[in-house]
Design goal:
This protein is α+β, with helices and mostly antiparallel strands and 119 residues long. It has a single domain, classed as 2-Layer Sandwich (Erythroid Transcription Factor GATA-1, Chain A), CATH 3.30.50.20. Helices cover 34% and strands 12% of the residues. The protein is built from four helices and four strands; from the N terminus they run ββαββααα. The strands form two sheets. A two-stranded antiparallel ribbon has the order 1-2. A two-stranded antiparallel ribbon has the order 3-4. Strand 1 and strand 2 form a beta hairpin. It is globular. The two termini are 14 Å apart.
Length: 119
């Protein structure tokens, strides 16, 4: 799938990032996570790339390394929203748990196999 970024450049949306649609948040930073307030609608769930040594200025982590996240959890793990009721260690632990859960979902659904064949 080809989409345009804010500068009008074409970007390829990966099978794995697209798979976030209609999924529940796997990061679940309570009490901020939207999954605890309403069922997932797919409208606010996105693929949140996890930290790695393979990212940098304008380069995201590979699409197999991330978690499905509601926009509230995504803002917290990316540092756009500061919270004082969850430690940075707990945020990281929840994010890594979310990465594991997301990978499990993608393997079980066959999305990971499709992505690997497309590489």
């Amino acid at each position: 799938m080809l989409v345009l970024d804010v500068w009008g450049r074409g970007l390829v949306v990966s099978i794995l990032t697209k798979a976030a649609r209609d999924q529940d948040c796997t990061i679940q930073l309570h009490p901020h996570c939207l999954i605890s307030k309403e069922p997932a609608t797919g409208k606010t769930t996105v693929f949140c790339h996890a930290p790695s040594s393979r990212k940098g200025w304008g380069i995201k982590t590979p699409d197999f390394w991330g978690a499905f996240g509601c926009h509230a959890c995504h803002d917290i793990v990316d540092g756009r929203r500061q919270v004082d009721d969850i430690s940075k260690d707990e945020i990281y632990r929840c994010f890594m748990r979310g990465v594991f859960e997301t990978m499990s979902i993608q393997i079980d659904s066959g999305a990971m196999a499709k992505w690997l064949k497309s590489q």
